[in-house]
Write a structure and sequence with these properties.
By secondary structure, the chain is an alpha/beta fold. It is built from 37 helices and 15 strands. The chain has a domain of about 325 residues: Amino acid/polyamine transporter I. β9, α27 and β10 form a beta-alpha-beta unit. The radius of gyration is 44 Å and the shape is elongated. It catalyses: K(+)(in) + chloride(in) = K(+)(out) + chloride(out). It holds the Pfam family SLC12. It is a multi-pass membrane protein.
Length: about 1100
């Protein structure tokens, strides 16, 4: 099958047969618990033996769509074998309208040599395609559906849908072509008097003929559509009659050729000079006749002169040239083949002339279109003839035909096609006069069908046979095209065509037949056989090209599933067939070829964008796998060049109890960085064991996929189950990606509720994540207040993206705003870059240098240099050398009891939030200046301040699924308390626990850690500057300092980051990966 669960396949549905049945045997008791997923081989073989690849009727199809479990007896559609379903439709198309109505004209115009090349090219194209089609059709069980199923299951739903619709249009226009051929035979050769529109003069005959074709063509189309609607079995009954007519007509042609070698038929043609005359309007090929004793002008004389009398004024060319009568069918033994060997292309309105006969041209005498000459009705050239002729070598099997029937029926079609056509080219050129061959409608032979003049025993055998043959071919097209459309519709790959998948109870299409008749009417309104034929040539050639491509791709990929029973194929033959089809498309008509490709391309993109997702195990996906493997093997394992660097994101998200992503804004922000054209992996961690939590992991993965699709994030998702969150995140950071295609940037949300955790695991996990990304040389992006980040539907009409460039760590701060401004959300925001200068720096020169640097980076931004005191920047310089103390140690120095410490943690809040920056390289030295009066060693300051930061209304709760990407929607209320001796004494008096006087004395003598004071002072001052400059910015990007080396100061690190980003709506803390990611070089 094709892998679609809704299709009947023993590999898919066999387990359903065993549902509800308990295994009673003892020999296989070891496997009884897995019977529901691994059925017995015996039951599988039973399903294979009874498997049919015929398509479902509409009733079964709708039951499958509705997941009805009831067993109903299927209503089978009429079955067609190799002969009725494949070989017969092919023969009726091949021995149809082109062979009987146009092949003689093609030979007369192009000559035997070029006609032979034309037939050889076209037949080679179909022969190579038949080989490829046989290989695909015998590669396993392919559901019925003709070339569409082969292409769609080999190249994917996009190619299959695009080419399948083009093939459908080609088959539909083929029906129009056959109907037009039927009307041409009827009105030109059987009942000319039936014409409704009649021309007043010779110049209006073509227009009148087209109008007649439109009227009668519409009537015939209505009758044929009615027959097809009544039932395909009636078409099959008519098909036997039509086939008899085809065979009889072909035999009559060969019998006539043999007879003409000994006894040529009498079809004289009349020539004036070397110009061919139409026999309409006169009977005798002579200028004068004797009536009684008087010589007068003949009927031919009257056509060129003003009267019958000899003294009448006549056409100058008529006067200067003699009338000659020659045999139109000299026979195969006449030696005529040499004269018809080469081409005689004509332009429109030119008289058909015989080469080699003497002719005296009248100077400057225009040709009158009302004169009885045989005129060329169109300008002819080789490429035009190829487009007109190619439909004669095509022929589609019906979609009801099984794959094996197509393999055995299509392949013999090609020699069956080539032999009569090649032999006909030679025999026509050898036995029919050249001017008769170039006479498209047989005007020189009394309006007879040209190929009929060669037939034996009578031209009527060919006329009647060709009439029924074209009728049968039209019926075959109207039978096949709706079923092809129905097959496409039932696959559901084109949403707006689904209505055409419905039909009768036995599966026969109704709505598809109605649409086919409407499209066929368009071809009939064109009304010209020579205009319709090149259109369907394009569609057939495109279909054949992709059949060959499908076979070549499957063969070259050498996938394990490519095991066709048909062995006589090779990828070079398929590639040659594909190239030949493409060449013939442009030979026929380059503009038609471009239009056909444009239509197919639009359908392809539509199916890709709006069509249903289908996984058919097609060759294009196999090609993608091979290409991906090849590219990954070639991709360097080491870091890419700076010019090729792009953010390859690992996005860590958290799910709620229902496994839904808590903060979808994080994925919105990820999609807004898509201008980086990098890898995106969205990952999450579940706590527990794999055996117990595997279903939850699948739900979480599906939830992430849905959100990625909604947010238009192109990438992959991964859910890891681990005993704890810390290990799970570590595994993701270490193992995500494949080969050289690995993430280089980690994106997480700020753990906003980190203070509310009883066990402090949230902030510890976050700090460990920061440390691991640093150890892995990965960049880290931390989105703070992620709930306030814009969705993809929001638009900022104005505003700024502010970059605070404190230290340089590879250029990520420059690259990220550039990527964001490519997205429509941030497109209208301007970029501003702030950098910090010390008092002894030349800020004016720094601004000039930064402007020049941005110019070389090709980044447009406003530049501003902010001057700060040395103490404000010094903490960043010595960030990794200073050690912070734990809050618990500070509280312990204050000699508070356990109950008092808990009360302090619940009541003390700070409005400042901080971030500590990573330091510059060690060789960069900046002085740290802190006033000695604040932290003097020997002095005791009565008003010395100690800042302790906590949430006022902190609540204690635990959640096993909390991750670093945690954010709380509502910001906790903040207060800022300054501890003094009086407040401390008051608090101590409230305490119920006894405190010794020594403890109180130690508390009053406690001094805050000098390092913590400096860092807090820096965070507060830097935050004041950022808020002053960037409070109204739409996004603030800021260097993120690293955690302390001494793990005892981890909690203080979180406090400093809070203080640093206080009063800012949207903050992106950026920590580089230790390498340059942006360069000034091209």
């Amino acid at each position: 099958g094709d892998g679609n669960p809704k299709e009947s396949s023993p590999f898919i549905n066999s387990t359903d047969l065993e549902k509800g049945k308990e295994y009673d045997g003892k020999n296989m008791a070891l496997f009884e618990e897995e019977m529901d997923t691994s059925p017995m081989v015996s039951s599988l073989l039973s399903g294979l033996a009874n498997y049919t690849n015929l398509p479902q009727g509409s009733r079964e199809h709708e039951e499958a769509e509705n997941n009805d479990g009831g067993k109903k007896k299927p209503v089978q559609a009429p079955r067609m074998g190799t002969f009725m379903g494949v070989y017969l439709p092919c023969l009726q198309n091949i021995f149809g309208v082109i062979l009987f109505l146009r092949l003689t004209w093609v030979v007369g115009i192009a000559g035997i040599m070029e006609s032979f090349c034309m037939v050889f090219l076209c037949c080679s194209c179909t022969m190579l395609t038949a080989i490829s089609m046989s290989a695909i059709a015998t590669n396993g069980v392919v559901p019925a559906g003709g070339s569409y199923y082969m292409i769609s299951r080999s190249l994917g739903p996009e190619f299959g849908g695009a080419v399948g619709l083009c093939f459908y249009l080609g088959t539909t226009f083929a029906g129009a072509m056959y109907i037009l051929g039927t009307i041409e035979i009827l009105l030109a050769y059987i009942f000319p008097a039936m014409a409704i529109f009649k021309a007043e003069d010779a110049s209006g005959e073509a227009a009148a003929m087209l109008n007649n074709m439109r009227v009668y063509g519409t009537c015939v189309l209505t009758c044929m559509a009615t027959v097809v609607f009544v039932g395909v079995k009636y078409v099959n009954k008519f098909a036997l009659v039509f086939l008899g007519c085809v065979i009889l007509s072909i035999l009559a042609i060969y019998a006539g050729v043999i007879k003409s070698a000994f006894d040529p038929p009498s079809f004289p043609i009349c020539l004036l000079g070397n110009r061919t005359l139409s026999r309409h309007g006169f009977d005798l090929c002579t200028k004068m006749v004797v009536e009684g004793n008087e010589t007068v002008g003949s009927k031919l004389w009257e056509l060129f002169c003003t009267s019958r009398f000899l003294n009448a004024t006549c056409d100058e060319y008529f006067t200067m040239n003699n009338v000659t009568e020659i045999e139109g069918i000299p026979g195969a033994a006449s030696g005529l083949i040499q004269e018809n060997l080469w081409s005689s292309y004509l332009t429109k309105g030119v008289i058909v002339e015989k080469r080699g006969l003497p002719s005296v041209s009248a100077p400057d005498t225009p040709v009158d279109m009302d004169q009885p000459y045989v005129f060329s009705d169109m300008t002819s050239y080789f490429t035009l003839l190829v487009g007109i002729y190619f439909p004669s070598v095509t022929g589609g099997s019906r979609p009801r035909a099984p794959a094996a029937a197509r393999a055995t029926g299509v392949l013999p079609r090609s020699p069956t096609c080539a032999s009569p056509h090649i032999s006909s080219v030679v025999l026509f050129g050898a036995g029919i006069e050249g001017v008769v061959l170039r006479d498209k409608f047989g005007e020189a032979v009394n309006g007879n069908l040209v190929v009929g003049t060669l037939a034996w025993p009578s031209p009527w055998v060919i006329v009647i046979g060709s009439f029924f043959s074209t009728c049968g071919a039209g019926l075959q097209s109207l039978t096949g095209a709706p079923r092809l459309l129905q097959a496409i519709s039932r696959d559901g790959i084109v949403p707006f065509l689904r209505v055409f998948g419905h039909g009768k109870a036995n599966g026969e299409p109704t709505w598809a037949l109605l649409l086919t008749a409407c499209i066929c009417e368009i071809g009939i309104l064109i009304a010209s056989l020579d205009e319709v034929a090149p259109i369907l040539s394009m569609f057939f050639l495109m279909c054949y090209m992709f059949v060959n491509l499908a076979c070549a791709v499957q063969t070259l990929l050498r996938t394990p599933n490519w095991r066709p029973r048909f062995r006589y194929y090779h990828w070079t033959l398929s590639f040659l067939g594909m190239s030949l089809c493409l060449a013939l498309m442009f030979i026929c008509s380059w503009y038609y070829a471009l239009v056909a490709m444009l239509i197919a391309g639009l359908i392809y993109k539509y199916i890709e964008y709006r069509g249903a997702e289908k996984e058919w195990g097609d060759g294009i996906r196999g090609l993608s796998l091979s290409a991906a493997r090849y590219a990954l093997l070639r991709l360097e394992e080491g870091p890419p060049h700076t010019k090729n660097w792009r953010p390859q994101l690992l996005v860590l998200v958290r799910g709620d109890q229902e496994q839904n992503v808590v903060h979808p804004q994080l994925l919105s922000f990820t999609s807004q960085l898509k201008a980086g054209k990098g890898l995106t992996i969205v990952a999450s961690v579940l706590e527990g064991t794999f055996l117990d939590n595997h279903p939850q992991a699948q739900r979480a993965e599906e939830s992430i996929r849905r959100l990625m699709e909604a947010e238009k994030v192109k990438g992959f998702c991964q859910v890891v189950i681990s005993s704890n969150l810390r290990d799970g995140m570590s595994h993701l950071i270490q193992s995500s990606g494949l080969g050289g295609l690995q993430h280089n940037t980690v994106l997480v949300g700020w753990p906003r509720s980190w203070r509310q955790k009883e066990d402090h695991q949230t902030w510890r996990n976050f700090i460990e994540l920061v440390r691991e990304t640093t150890a892995g040389h990965l960049a880290l992006l931390v989105a703070k207040n992620v709930a306030m980040f814009p969705g993809n539907q929001e638009r900022f009409s104005e505003g700024h993206i502010d970059v605070w460039w404190i230290v340089h760590d590879g250029g990520m701060l420059m690259l990220l705003p550039f990527l964001l401004r490519h997205h429509k959300v941030w497109r209208k925001c301007k970029m501003r870059i702030f950098t910090v200068a010390q008092m002894d720096d030349n800020s004016i020169q720094m601004k000039k240098d930064l402007t020049t640097f941005l110019y070389h980076l090709r980044i447009t931004a406003e530049v501003e240099v902010v001057e700060m005191h040395e103490s404000d920047i010094s903490a960043y310089t010595y960030e990794k050398t200073l050690v912070m103390e734990q809050r618990s140690q500070i509280l312990k120095q204050m000699h508070l009891t356990k109950n008092e410490r808990e009360r302090e943690i619940q009541s003390i809040t700070d409005e400042s939030r901080g971030s500590i920056r990573r330091k510059n390289p060690a060789n960069t030295r900046l002085r740290l200046s802190v006033p000695e009066e604040q932290v003097g060693d020997g002095e005791e300051k009565p008003e010395e301040e100690v800042q302790l930061i906590h949430d006022k209304n902190a609540t204690t709760f635990s959640s096993s699924s909390q991750s670093p990407g945690d954010e709380v929607e509502t910001a906790p209320e903040k207060v800022h308390l300054t501890w003094t001796k009086e407040k401390s004494v008051a608090e101590k008096n409230k305490s119920k626990s006894p405190v010794s006087p020594e403890g109180i004395k130690d508390f009053f003598n406690m001094k805050p850690n000098q390092s913590n004071v400096r860092r807090m002072h820096t965070a507060v001052k830097l935050n004041e500057v950022i808020v002053k400059k960037s409070q109204d910015a739409k996004l603030v990007l800021l260097n993120m300092p690293g955690p302390p080396r001494n793990r005892k100061g981890d909690e203080n690190y979180m406090e400093f980051l809070e203080v640093l980003t206080e009063h800012l709506d949207r903050v992106l803390l950026v920590r580089g990966g230790g390498r340059e990611v942006i360069t000034i070089y091209s």
